[in-house]
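Memo to structure team: turn this sequence into structure tokens by end of day. - J.P.
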Amino acid sequence: MIAKVIAHGRTRGDSIRIMQRALNEFMIEGEDIKTTISLHQRILDDPYFRTGNIDTQFIKKRLPIYESTAKKLSLKEKTHLAEMIGENLTKAMDEGLDYT
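Reply from structure team:
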């Protein structure tokens, strides 16, 4: 485990919004590091989860839905991805590779 994130709010909705923001801003740097951040983001976006009417079978029942849902990137993630692509293209061009 790299980190554990816990959110508290006055209401369930407040806690969910706080956790969504925390997960959207969370950055893990390094190669081949797998996280469950996108899974947690999908769970927090799920209207069924938001109702609070869940039980111990919740993940088992809903996992196929989360696995088929494309991950939404936050602005920070998109910016980070664009920077990484730019750095790799610059490095490749400096090494003489042509991408035109």
